[in-house]
Design a protein that fits this description.
Number of helices: 8
Strand content: 15-25%
CATH topology: Spore Coat Polysaccharide Biosynthesis Protein SpsA, Chain A
Structural class: alpha/beta
Number of strands: 7
CATH class: Alpha Beta
Radius of gyration: 17 Å
Shape: globular
Distance between the termini: 33 Å
Order of helices and strands: EHEHEHEHEHEHHEH
Helix content: 25-40%
């Protein structure tokens, strides 16, 4: 019985998927929880789906969800949340700029916390990408007061019941810690390793990293004001 599912959003990552299979399969042999992998193909137009199906056919722990058309990263993560049936779930990008091995660092703390996110130490990105990310994170913290330094880090572990209660909208993947806090959940950030992109192309430009998140902050404030949170004391 699997205890932990890693969600892997995929959009036109055919050049990375062989390495994704190798590294995630290796991780399942050292994982601190029995681990399954769920690919969410966000309407890729390259050979990604054929590769995903081949990977899943030869590995029992791997499965997939295929979108009819491209819907974006938040939709892919939401679909992953919807289809996971393990107690814990994780999320990693298919570019593998973070290491699956570091999931074990996050899993050490998930008992006490409801979301544990990585913080990319010594980032291997361009100056423009690093600076735009720092500015976007600063703006987000000012709006959410979540205390998180790097919500864009594509390495997270979340208790599944909390994840399934998040009312996702486009761009909300940047606000996952804040949305857990709206449920009175506890969040923690842990330094993790970061690596250069080896293959494929980055899916986010300056607009996505800086101006887009600023607009999403106002959507978050609306969500926070309207968010429904309750706890049942007794049923008869």
């Amino acid at each position: 019985m699997y205890e932990f599912t890693i969600i892997v959003p995929v959009y036109n990552e055919e050049d990375n998927l062989e390495r994704v299979e190798k590294e995630l399969l290796a991780y399942t042999t050292i994982a601190s929880r029995k681990t399954a992998i769920l690919f969410v193909n966000d309407g890729s137009t390259d050979n990604s789906q054929q590769l995903i199906e081949a990977i899943c056919s030869r590995n029992d722990a791997f499965s997939y969800v295929l979108f009819k058309e491209n819907r974006g990263l938040s939709a892919a993560i939401k679909a992953g949340f919807d289809h996971v049936d393990t107690e814990l779930l994780g999320y990693i990008d298919s570019d593998l700029q973070t290491s699956p091995e570091d999931f074990n660092l996050l899993l050490e703390h998930i008992g006490e916390y409801d979301l544990v996110t990585g913080v990319r130490a010594d980032r291997k990105d361009s100056f423009v990408k690093n600076m735009s990310s720092k500015i976007a994170n600063g703006i987000r913290r000012a709006f959410t007061h979540d205390g998180m330094d790097d919500t864009g880090c594509p390495l997270k572990v979340i208790k599944t019941d909390y994840a399934k209660r998040i009312p996702m909208f486009k761009g909300l993947h940047r606000f996952l810690p804040a949305m857990i806090m709206l449920q009175d959940g506890k969040v923690l950030q842990i330094p993790v390793r970061h690596f250069p992109r080896i293959a494929g192309k980055a899916k986010f430009g300056l607009w996505n990293r800086l101006l887009g998140p600023l607009m999403d902050c106002f959507a978050y404030l609306w969500m926070k004001k309207k968010y429904i949170n309750y706890e049942v004391k007794r049923k008869g």
